[in-house]
Amino acid sequence: MAKKSKKQQPGGTPATVALTAAGVEFTVHSYDHDPSHPSYGEEAAEAMGVSPDRVFKTLVADVDGALTVAVVPVAGQLDLKALAAAVGGKRATMADPTLAERTTGYVRGGISPLGQRKRLPTVLDASASAHSTICVSAGRRGLEVELSPEDLQKLTEAVVAPVGRPA
After folding, report:
1. How confident is the model at residue 11 (pLDDT cuts 50, 70, 90)?
2. For residue 115, what is the DSSP state?
3. Scanning 22, 74, 159, 166, which has the fewest C-beta atoms within 10 Å of its C-beta?
4. Higher-scoring residue by pLDDT: 85, 37
């Protein structure tokens, strides 16, 4: 069962520190991560009792040689062609996981679009705007933050575009 907290926990992640510093409203959800679960995002949705279309995963792709972040619902997949088009590129492939971890400062399954070591161009799937709040990784497995898609878009300077597709 997920635990909720509206207050910043001592020793927060770079994502929660960034949210607190920005003064935006957010809720932290924590749950016990099961390493044997086949999907980090689906596990988060199940643990929090939130619809998978409101829980978004953070994926790092390589668009024409530049790392780019895509934030899409866990219930779907990333459309690489749409991602490339959204940032004015020609071709996108998934980034090497080790490079993604080193660049963002987070581990796979816990990469947050917020508080990254190096700010990367970000694209938020347009479906996020259908919800008053969405959940994204707070920077480690078993920890999510819930915030408005508008606040996420502002803080990451994300382009909003239809880059997700049904699984």
Report:
1. low
2. S
3. 166
4. 85
Q: Report how far residue 6's alpha carbon sits from residue 19's, in angstroms, rounded to the nearest whole number.
A: 12
Give me the torsion for CA of 3, 16, 74, 130, rounded to 10°.
Answer: 100
Sheet holding 56-63, edge to edge: 92-94, 56-63, 66-73, 122-125, 159-161
Q: What is the 8-class DSSP label of residue 116?
A: -
- Provide the pLDDT confidence category of residue 12 given band limits of 50, 70 and 90: confident
- Tens digit of each residue's pLDDT (9 = 90 or more) over 27-47: 999 998 888 888 888 889 999
Q: Are 2 and 31 in contact (CB under 8 A)?
A: yes
Q: How far apart are CA 160 and CA 82, in angstroms?
A: 11
Q: For residue 85, give both structure tokens.
A: 């088009």
CB atoms within 10 A of CB 21: 11
Return d(Cα 143, Cα 151) in angstroms, integer.
19
What is the C-alpha separation between 71 and 51, in angstroms, rounded? 16
pTM equals: 0.91
